[in-house]
Amino acid sequence: MIKVKIGDIDSSLSGKQVLIDALIDSRRDVFGMSIFRLYDGSGFIDVKSFSKNCRDLNIHDAVTARVFLKSSGSKFMGELLSFSPIPDSKLDMFKKLVKENEMLKTAPRTDSFTVNSQCYNNLKNKFLDAARLIKKSILESRLIILKHHADCDGYSAALSLESAIVPLIAEEQGGDSVKYFYKRNPMKKPFYEYLDAIKDITLNFDSFSKSKPPLVIIVDNGSSAQDLISLQKLRMYGSKIIVVDHHIPAFKNGKFLIDDFVDVHINPHIVGFTSDITAGMLSYELANFIRDISHLVFLPALSGIGDHSSCREFDNYVNRALSSGYSLDYLRKLAKVLDFEAYSLGFYEGHSIVKDFLTDKSKQSALVDLVYPYVESLESKQEDIVKNSVVKEDIGKVKLFTLDLDSISLMSEYPPPGKISGLCFKMFSKMPNIVVAGLSNSYLTIRTNIDSFDVSELIRFINSRLDFGFFGGGGHPHAGTLKFAPIVKDKVFNLLKEFLLRFDWHAR
Prior knowledge:
Layout: E1 17-30, E2 33-39, E3 44-49, E4 62-72, E5 75-85, H1 88-105, H2 118-122, H3 124-139, E6 144-149, H4 152-173, H5 178-181, E7 182-187, H6 194-205, E8 215-219, H7 228-236, E9 240-244, E10 251-252, E11 255-256, E12 264-266, H8 279-290, H9 298-306, H10 312-323, H11 328-345, H12 351-359, H13 361-387, E13 391-395, E14 398-404, H14 405-408, H15 417-428, E15 434-439, E16 443-448, H16 455-465, E17 472-476, E18 479-483, H17 489-502
Parallel strand pairs: 3-5, 6-7, 6-8, 8-9, 9-12, 14-15
Antiparallel strand pairs: 1-2, 1-4, 2-3, 4-5, 10-11, 13-14, 15-16, 16-18, 17-18
Helix pairs in contact: 3-4, 3-8, 4-8, 4-9, 6-7, 8-9, 9-10, 9-11, 11-13, 12-13, 13-15, 16-17
């Protein structure tokens, strides 16, 4: 009788008895039988037993199992005929072999990036660690929860990763198992809020893989101070966490705040680069370490268009997309349509619609033809309102354009307030030294073309002068959102003006 690794089992062994050195990964007792999941680092196999002798087997036990193999489609199952514990004298060697098998099985398919980038090279070890953790989590039958910001960049990032993760789950667990081991959830807020953490922990407890903490992947969010308590909550329940973000990460006492609570943090800022390298670009490269997704090269290009990127990496992705048959005009339309679809889907996953967007070029084109003119008409009407309502004033060397967002936007209708501020900025962006302030009852959106302006500095400035009011916020250096209690609305706006007067700004 031959001894085999689980990962080497194929159709030639169906109907035969084999020996397998393995750990008991999980156990279920149903209808008078026990189902054990055997794991040896190269893969897993479910084996059933009606024998009373198996009642003493527990999770994490190391055994040599005699198994009769059966094939069910592309998946193998077995009957546990007998077992013997691996002796203590051989246990260390066995565990070493399991680790070696894992290292081989979870190795990234490549360690090369699709475009030349010093930023990516500086982050390579983090990419490799993240790819290995994703593959290991699939191998270990963990639930993978993918959280992403509900905008063009967030969706571009999530869809790249989904296209790499889902096929691998289907290969390892069987095609019908994807719904048990993978969930994707958009987030409307620009941070991973505490309620999301509670939902994700509860989701894992209710899942098929509840015996193990999940892997939570957060993209285009996750690195701010607002994310910290939610990440700590996940960590308290043993979750594995990967953050792929391009917003400015919270930094204190010489380190990035979230790094103590996540397994991998990929962010261009931690190696001295800017937000122009988007979450969609980072996620595309990470996904490509797991599986070849070169046919989706339009996604990192879309993310850059959606977030108004300006960097060498973005130019390379656009050129590759153009070489694949896309035009720049079509990509811009597609980015706007994806943003609208993201807004309309809200918290809903929309797997079927998203699949069409990725895999059916004719439906993708039809969607652009249908939705793009509609979005353009909505934005055109909004621009007319902006032109007739924006308040312009000079604050020192700065031209401040202020919008009363509560009076010029419709609740739960497109375009949302942040997009309205963006439309106003686009209208006046060719003028030097402008700041667009979209003022609502409890938040302030900022858009600017001033090179030396930094939203983070504005937040620190206001924080140092405001004694109360739940003030906070974040974003990119030239675009962000400040939140506050309505009672301090006027104080925050006056402090913005004071901030603009205090510095010698230089036009972008």
